[in-house]
Known about the structure:
Elements: E1 5-8, H1 19-26, E2 30-34, H2 41-50, E3 54-59, H3 69-72, H4 74-83, E4 87-90, H5 99-113, E5 119-123, H6 132-142, E6 147-152, H7 155-158, H8 165-171, E7 176-181, E8 192-193, H9 203-211, E9 219-221, E10 225-226, H10 233-249
Parallel strand pairs: 1-2, 1-9, 2-3, 3-4, 4-5, 5-6, 6-7, 7-9
Antiparallel strand pairs: 8-10
Helix pairs in contact: 8-9
Amino acid sequence: MKNIIACNLGSYRQYGTIAYAHLAEIGLTNVEISVPSTDGVETLQSELKSHGLTATSLLGRCDVQSETVVEDFHPTLKIANEMNVKVIFVSVHAGETDKNVVYDRLRAIGENAEPLNVKVCLETHPDLIHNGDIALETMKAVNHPNIRVNFDTGNVYFYNHNVDAVTEVQKIVDYVGAVHLKDTNGGYRTWHFPALGEGVVDYKAVFQTLNDVGFYGPFTMELEGIEGENLDEAGVKARVANSLQHLKDIGVI
C-alpha cells in the first residue's frame, strides 16, 4: 500500500490563493484544510475537485476545557462525514481542568466519531500529547479507538529537551492516526522549520516505523518556516516542492 502524502495549506503562508494550482502542478493531490462552514461544503468540494485534489484531513476546534465540547463537536463530525474525510486534526489542552474529566469528554467524542469511521487526532502539543510518554498516558486513559495521536515530527523537538522523533513515535506507534511532517533544527522552543530534509528528522525511519505496523497516512507536510525569514511566492513554492522531492528521494513515495 502506498503512503498517503498531503499538504497543510498553511504551508503556503500568505500565498494560499495559489496553493491548489501549485499542488496540482507538482503532482500532490491531497490536502489538509480547515473545517468549512456548513453552507460552504459544496463550494469547497467543487473547488478541490476542479484541481484534482482530495481533503484527507480537516483542522477542527476542540475545546476540551468546555463543558459543552462533546455537543459542540457534532457539527465538525457531520461536515467531515459529508465530505467523506476520515481524519479530524485538533489541538487539545487540559489546562486547569481535571484530566479525568478531559479523558471522559474525549472518549465521548470518540463514541460519536466511531459510527462515522472518523478518527479525531490530537496534535503533539502540551499538555496532553507533547511527547511519546505523555501521549501514551493520554491514549491509555481515553482508551477509545477513534481518538488517536497526530504525531508531529517537528513539535516533538520544539516542546521537549533531548528527544528523537523516531524514538518518540516508537512509543506510541499503535496510537498514531495521522502525522504532520515538519522538519526542525532540533532546538527547544526554536522556530526553525525548514523544508523537509534540511533538518534533523530521520524521515525514512519515521515512515518505516509506522509502515511496519500498517500505518500509511495521511502524512501531511506542515512547513511552518524559520523565524525572521521573508520568503516570496517563489520561495514558498520551492519549499513545498523541495519537501515533496525529499520524500521521493528517500523512497517513501
